[in-house]
Every structure is written in structure tokens, then in C-alpha cells.
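agent> fetching stored inputs for the fe (ii) ion docking request
agent> found them:
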Amino acid sequence: MDKIKKELIMMLNQALELEHAARIQYLAHAEMIQGLDAEPVIERLKEIASDEQKHEGIFRELIGNYLGGAPSMGLAETHSAQKTSKILEVNLKGEKDAIDFYKQIYRKVVANKEALPYEFETLEHQIRHVIIDEQEHVTELCLLLGR
Ligand SMILES: [Fe+2]
Ligand SMILES: [Fe+2]
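agent> prediction call returned; pasting C-alpha cells
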């Protein structure tokens, strides 16, 4: 297999593990939110978790079907928090870290366009799509934090 495909499989598997961890973290945190304004925050965290689940599917398909790799079943590190503001902060940081990493993958794909004649547009489109979703999550979390 090409070196570039191997590298992309490795990076996309790290991304998949970040998505596994993010989904579980959002769902666990959603059960911990309490207080007067809890309901809309809980709803939003659950909605974001379902986006992360879609991202898992996208990354699995890119790894397995398009690049011929094996999708990881692993889980990146998760972070606990108690208070609502702390929960939102922890997840905001996770979203920003994910965006930074997905942009590295995106740049690698674009830089290797010629070596990916039957995969490039799909990889470019799907990774870009996930980055746009994560930017939406950042915006939503900032809104909940009152920023
Ligand atoms: Fe995601
Ligand atoms: Fe996200």
C-alpha cells in the first residue's frame, strides 16, 4: 500500500478514536447537567453527540472502503467535569483540538491530491464537512457559555 494511504489511515483512525471519546463524553455529561436551565443544555449536548456518531460513520467509511484500512475500535482520552460551565469548557477545548487535528489531515489530503486519483474528492469533501460541523459545535458551546 502507498505510504500516503498508510499515513492517512493512521491519522483517520486517531480522528475516529477522538469521535468515539467525544460522543461518550457528551452523553455522560448530558446526564450530569442539573438546575433551572438544564433542559436546553442537555438537549444540545445530545444533539452534538449524535453529530459525533455521524462523524464516526464517515471516518470508518473513509478508512475501510476508500483507503482499505481497518477502522479502530479504540477510544481517545475522555475528560470528566461536574459543573455545567466546566462541562462546556472541557468540551469546547475538545472541539478546538479536534478541529486543529482534522485540519492537519485535510492539509495532508490536499497536498497529496495527485496520489489519490480515486479518493481525493471524497476525502476532501468529507473531512471538510466534519470540520464545518465541529466549527458549528464550537459556536454552539460558546453561545451556551455566553461568549
Ligand atoms: Fe465530530
Ligand atoms: Fe464536535
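agent> quick read of the result: The chain has one domain: 3-144.
agent> awaiting further instructions
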